[in-house]
Every structure is written in C-alpha cells, then in structure tokens.
Amino acid sequence: MQTQSVLESLPDDMDFATLLEASLADSLPSRGDIVTGTVMAIDSYGLIVDIGWKRDGIVPRKDLERLQVDISEFENGREIDVMVIRLEDSEGNLILSVSQARQVEDWKNAEALMNAGELWTGTVIEANRGGLIVPFGNLRGFIPASHVADLPRGLNDEDRQREMSKLVGQDVTVKIIEVNRKRRRLVLSQRDAQRGNREARKQVLLDELNEGDVTNGVVSGLRDFGAFVDLGGADGLIHISELAWHRVEHPKEILSVGDEVDVYVLRLDNEGKRIGLSLKRLQENPWTLIDEIYHVGQLVEGVISRIADFGVFISLEPGIEALLHSSQIDNEIAPNMREGQRILTRIISIEADKQRLGLSLKEVTFEEYNPWFETQEADAVVLYSEDELAEAETTHDEDADAGAVVTDSVQSDELAETAEASAGE
Questions:
Q1: CB neighbours of residue 347 within 10 Å
Q2: Which CATH architecture group holds 2-102?
Q3: Which of 20, 168, 308, 394 has the most CB within a 10 Å radius?
Q4: What is the pLDDT of residue 206?
Q5: Full-prediction pTM beyond 0.85?
Q6: What is the number of other CB atoms lying within 10 angstroms of the CB of residue 314?
Q7: Structure confidence at residue 413 (pLDDT)
Q8: Which contacts (CB < 8 Å, 24+ apart) does range 283-288 have?
Q9: CATH for the stretch 117-194
C-alpha cells in the first residue's frame, strides 16, 4: 500500500506521532496571516473565535471599538475574517484582530481605486493644521491642506484651520494619490478630483455647445484679465474686453462672484480645452446708432478716460470713446489734463464703420466753453486762465461799450436827419 511505503521510508528514529505533529506545525497560522474563523462566544473581553486550530483565538474588545460598530453585530456562529496578531501572549492566548483584517481589504480597495484613477466620496471627520481626515473604511485618509479645493491662499495656520473646519461633517469627493501600507499612509486629493471632474465636464460642454450659442452660468471668479463663469461643472472665461462695449478697468465694475448671467459662446477651443464667452455680444453695439446720435460740428461733453502720447480719449457715453488728437489741443492746456476730468469738445469727424469719432478743443469758442465750465460741479478741464478770462471779459465789455457808442451815434444822426426834414417841411 501507498501508506505503508511512506512509513517504510521514514527514518528509524521518527514514529507516526512525530510525523503528525510536524504535519500540524506546517498548517499553523503565522503572525500577519488573515484567516476565516467562527464566532464562538462574546464576553466582556471581546470575541472568542474558532479558526480551526488546536485552541480558540481572542479578539480584544479594544480592537472591536476601533471599528466603531455595535458589538452585537458579531453574533455566535457568524464567520468573520481575522488577522493573527500574536500566536501566544503572556497568558498563552492566541490574539486576533478583526479591524486589521478589514484594513488589509481597505488597502487593497484603495490601491485598486488609485490604479484605476477613479474618484471616491467620503465624509470629513476632523480638521487639523495640516489638512483633513476622511475615513476610508477602517483606514484614516488624509487630505493635505494644499489639496483642499477652494481654500483661500495666503492664510496663516490658524485661519487655514478655521476655513477647513467648515468642511467637517461634509461629504467630499477625492482622488487617491498615495497608498503606502508600510508607512500606513493613505493620501487623498480633493483638488485633483475636482480638476478631473471639471476637465471631463468641460469636454462634454465642448461637445454640446456651438459658437454663437447663448447659455446660462454663475460667476465663479474675478481676475484682472476677466471673469470665470461656471457653466455647470466647468468654467468658461469672459475676457475683460468682452464684458462691455465701454472700457472696463476691472471685472468687478460689471460683475460679482455669485451673479447668474446669460453669456454668448464666443469661441470653442477643443485642443486647448478652453471656452471663450462674451457678455457684450448680448448688448446692442452703440456704434450702430452713432449716426443717429451725433453729427459733425456738434458740441459734446464727456470724461477723459485715457491719455496717450498722440492725444486724449474721451468717453462720451457707455461704449462710445472718441479721440481728441494732440493737434486739436493747445500746448499750454495738454499738460494739465488728467483722467476723470470733464471736458467740452466739438465733433470734427465720424467714421461709424471703423468705430472712430474725432474731437477738437480748438474749435470750441470762449463763448461756448466758459458758460458750460461755470455750470460744472465735478472736476473739469480749465480751458482759460484767470487772466485770459479777465481779458476776455474786458474785451467783451469794451465791445459792448463800443457797440453802444455806435448805436447812440447812429440814433443821434437819425434824430438830426429827422429834425432837418421836419424843419424843411
């Protein structure tokens, strides 16, 4: 028989009992092994678990408390996975762990999610100076402060922690960026998750939208160069030049974060994943009405909006900016002009198709400018000095006196002629 040949091949000094003991030793669990056992009893110390060995193992109550579950979940006869922690403690007990067995499964799940690049949603339970704590099964996932989305920059440690504390109790979607079992590091990123979500959503928008469409969004951010509008999970940009037909120094003059706006889809860049928007394309272009509003020779008042080497730009009304060329400004007046001043000028040219309107200051007379200047409450360009005003008034008075003398002389001559005619009759 087969058994007999095996026994005959054993050394003379090894009996069957020794062989059985050696065979059992090979099947004994080792520290760190995960095995399946059956709950035999629940007592004040924890669980008694049969793992099919020569003695039962113990899962300490402290280990169960780490799971934050009701101990009644582990009813008698239930099969559970446990990790072998110690083969024998000081009292000869086999020590097992349910929490660490479950953590091994959590590590595997975390690695799978990281390798697949998939997103995961958890609840923030704690905020500290370094970041946020989010449980991942029985593991503690960590989101560094640098990976917390929408966290204001430039905050000190105290203010940063205060901002992050607002997220405690909230669900956050994250991407797993590091899994290190040996160092027990599970690092998560809310920022990367949002970036991935927004990029995917932006591609959907690029496929759905067409240039020329009008869509709705919410202003999500303001920068010096324009305003970002959330179109539903992805942002488009309204460049500052597309906010209004008139000159805008900063988007805050037109919009505020949180404003709901209708926007015109100006351009779509599939390669660069950019969506260009416009606000002013939904407004009437004032230059289309320029010929109805203005004519050459008309006196117009406006505000100096820009000063350049070749002249001064005058804002006549929202969307209409005209040029007062340096050749149409007296050299003595030009150095004293500054942005924000009001001024009265005359229109000397109109090119509606090129959106150009030319002005002149030299074409405005004293009799036209001075009465207007005297009515201005805001800062206005001074066209004449006090001496020039005094001289002009003196000249005006002298002209008036001269006119009166001439009138009197004429009237005297007429009276004399009338008297002579009467005498002749």
A1: 19
A2: Beta Barrel (2.40)
A3: 168
A4: 85
A5: no
A6: 24
A7: 56
A8: 283/244, 283/245, 285/245, 285/319, 286/245, 286/317, 286/318, 286/319, 286/320, 287/245, 287/319, 287/320, 287/352, 287/355, 288/352
A9: 2.40.50.140
